[in-house]
Amino acid sequence: MTAIGAQDVARRVHGTPPPAEAAGPSYIGLVTRAIAAAIDAAIVNGIAAVTAAAVVLVLSLFPIGHVARTVLVAVGGFAFFVWVAAYFVTFWATTGQTPGNRVMRIRVTRSSGARLHLWRAIVRLELPPGAAVSEQQLVDAYGLSKAAVRSALARLRADRLVESGIGEPADWMIHADADWHGFGALAEGFNMLDPIKSTIVTPGLDVSGRFAPSGIPAAIVTKFLAEHGVIVEKTGLYSFFIMFTIGITKGRWNTLLTALQQFKDDYDRNAPMWRVLPEFVASYPKYERMGLRDLAQAIHETYVQGDIARLTTDMYLSDLQPAMRPTDAFAYIAHKKTDRVPIDELEGRVTTSLLTPYPPGIPLLIPGERFNRKIVDFLKFTREFNRRFPGFDTDVHGLVEHDIDASEFSYFVDCVAAGE
Q1: Which has more confidence, 132 or 200?
Q2: Do strands 408-416 and 400-405 pair parallel, antiparallel, or not at all (unpaired)?
Q3: Rounded distance between C-alpha atoms, residue 177 and residue 189, angstroms
Q4: How far is CA 238 from the centre of its chain?
C-alpha cells in the first residue's frame, strides 16, 4: 500500500501526467493501517447494528420459539460474516480503497510501485466514469507506446468501457419540433449540426423564454474560459459559440472540457472571484469578495427582473417606422445637423446611426428610422445593467457613452436635429 500524495490528487483533477516514479513504493506504517481498519470496523459494525436492531424490532411482533430463535441467531451470524466479506471485497474490487483507506489516503498499487494497468484503472475507477482523456495523456501516465494505447482502447471499446469518435451522421441530425432548438417544423433529414461548431447552452433560460429560479449567464463562463486560454467566438445571454478546426486534437478540446469542469467545481463551491478570475478582478475590484455563484445569480436575477429575453424579442418585432431614406439621414451628418440625444428623450426621434445590440448582433435600427417605446426600454435596461455590472457590459453599436464622473456615465444616440 502507498499513500496518495497531493500530486496524485492534483493529477486526477487536472489530468496532468504523473511525475517520475520513485525507485520503489512507500509503505504505510502500522498505526495508519490500524486507524483505517478502525474506521472500516466502525462502519461495518454500525451498519450491522442498525440492521440487527431493525430485524429484532420486526420479529418482536411475532411469537418465536426457542428453536427458531437459535436458527435465526445462526443465520444472523452467517449474514454478518457475508456482510463483512462483501464490504471489503466490493471496495477492493472496484475502487481499490475502503472508506477507511480513503480517509487515511491509502491505495493499492502494483508490486513495483507503478500505477495499475489501463484496463484495471478503469474498472477500479482510477479513471472516473465519463472522464475525458487523450491518447497522449494515457501514453504519459502509463508509459506505453501510442500503438499499445490504441490497441488497449480498441479492446476497451469492444467491452463498452470507453467511447470515442464523433458518432454517425444520424447522431448530428436536427429533428423537427425537438424542444431544445426552437426552430419548429424543419424538413426531416435535411438539417445537421456542424461537429466543429459548438454552441454551449448554460442554465437559466429555455427556448420559450422562461427563466429558471437560478442560472449561469454565459458572460461569466466566457470570462472564465478567456483566463484559461479558451477563445469564445460569440456570447449570448445563456449560450456561447466556440469554433473548432478540422485538425483539432483530442488534447486540445480536452482543454475546454477541463476548464468547464473547473468552472463547475468553482461554482458549486461558490469560490471567491479573486481566486477564480484574478485578472478580471484586478480590473474590476468591486467583485473581489463576491462568490462566483453569488455573482452569477445576481446577473441572472437582473435579467429576470428586466425580462430581457422577451424584451429583446419584442423590440425586434415592434413597429419600426422609417422617417426617411438612409442616404437622407447620412446627409444630416454631413451637414452637421444632428443632436446627441440622451436615452430618456429618444422616443420619436430619428436616428442617424446604425443601432446594433450585441447580443444578438442583429441591426435593430438603420439610419432614418424612429425610436419607439420598446427600443427605449431596452436601452434603459442596458444603461442600468452596465452601471450595476461593469465588465459584463451589454454592447450596443451606435450608443455613445459619456462619463459624468468616475462612478457615473450616460448614454446618447446621434439623431436628426430637432425641427429638421
Answers
A1: 200
A2: antiparallel
A3: 13
A4: 12
Same domain, 201 and 292: yes
**Would you say residue 58 lies in a domain?**
yes
Beta-carbon-side half-sphere exposure of residue 174 (alpha carbons within 13 Å) = 16
pLDDT at position 416 is 93
Q: What is the four-CA torsion angle of 380, 384, 387, 392, rounded to 10 degrees?
A: -90
| Phi and psi based region of residue 27 (left: phi greater than 0; alpha: psi -120 to 50; beta: remaining) | beta
Task: Give the angle subtended at the CA of 338 by the CAs of 337 and 341, to the nearest 5°.
Answer: 155
- Tell me the CA distances in angstroms from 345 to 217, 341, 375, one per residue in order: 30, 6, 12
pTM of the model: 0.59
Q: How far apart are the first and last CA of the chain?
A: 87
Last residue of a domain, one of 244, 277, 304: 304
Task: Give pLDDT, residue 251.
Answer: 62
**Tell me: the pLDDT tens digits for 371-389?**
999 999 999 999 999 999 9
Confidence band, pLDDT 50/70/90 cuts, at residue 9: very low
Please give the distance of CA 378 from its chain centroid, rounded to a whole number. 29
Among 322, 209, 224, 303, residue whose Cα is nearest residue 267: 224
- The per-residue pLDDT for 382 is 92
Query: How many folded domains does the chain comprise?
Result: 3
Amino acid letter at 246?
I
- Domain span at residue 231 reads 196-304
Joined together, the cell numbers standing for residue 210 give 422562461
